[in-house]
Design a protein that fits this description.
- By secondary structure, this protein is mainly alpha-helical.
- Helix 1 crosses helix 4, helix 1 crosses helix 5 and helix 4 runs parallel beside helix 6.
- The strands form two sheets. Strands 4-3-5 form a three-stranded mixed sheet, with no helix packed on it.
- The chain is built from nine helices and five strands; from the N terminus they run αααααβββββαααα.
- It folds into two domains: 160 residues, set domain protein methyltransferase, domain 1 (Alpha-Beta Complex); 102 residues, no CATH class.
- It starts with a helix and ends in a 9-residue tail after the last helix.
- This is Ribosomal lysine N-methyltransferase set11.
Length: 286
Amino acid sequence: MSIHGLLAADFVLNPPAESWIKVIPTIDEFNSIPFFWPPEAQRLLPGTAKRLLEKQQSNFGRDWKHLQSAYPHVPSEDYMHAWFVVSSRAFYQETQQTLLYPWHDRLAMLPVADLFNHASVGCKVSYCAESYDIVADREYGKGDEVCTCYGEHSNNFLLAEYGFLLQNNANDLFDPDDLISSELSPEETALLKQMKTLAALDQLCGPATSDKGRVESTPGAIDNVLLQKLLAKFLEEIKGCRQKVLALDDGKKGYRQLLLQRWDQIDELVRRAIPLSLPSSGPEST
């Protein structure tokens, strides 16, 4: 059983004191997380978010199977609630015990610290095996929201894991795999593979851009005409996804608006990529 699953088991088998229960979200408050959406809405997630959801479903299923075999009296919904309390509030922590687990499962619960929301810029966080330190990055007044940065995450990750999107996310990116069902020619498939390679290098080494923000590459390395056609195809598919989302009836649960917002963000990212894909040229002749 994962540390995530064990923390959730402890939560459901040994409920916290009443004073803490008041600050813990109910299961209904997790409705913005795609795990709790109906299948027809989950199918309209961008590809990256959908794969994160599928991994989440697999991890929960594995942990639930372990718990059910030992404590068959625990209702599935109670454990699911506990599992997402941990998922949305646990912190990465390295101790002798957690280092025995994969890095993504080195988790600890930190009461009070889990009340901080996420922002691209926030309080400075550091930790050791014995403690966590959260230091204010500026002076805060009474009533001000105090945030920390959960990490350099794209909006696909934030949506799948936490159920929210940032309006201006410097770490957001367009992943060609976000598109659901593009039928590509062999040439387009090869170009897509090249785009993914460049994107991976960009993440590892930082963007190689000129002072105008144009992505630089070896001359002729990318077929810009084909790239323009491919990006235009992506825009058409985004349009189709939006139409399917608009046809959903979410009963005021909010997932339709989140899907629309995410596809609008991806549309904007693709449109930004189109000018960058154009070859550099001198002033137009008149």
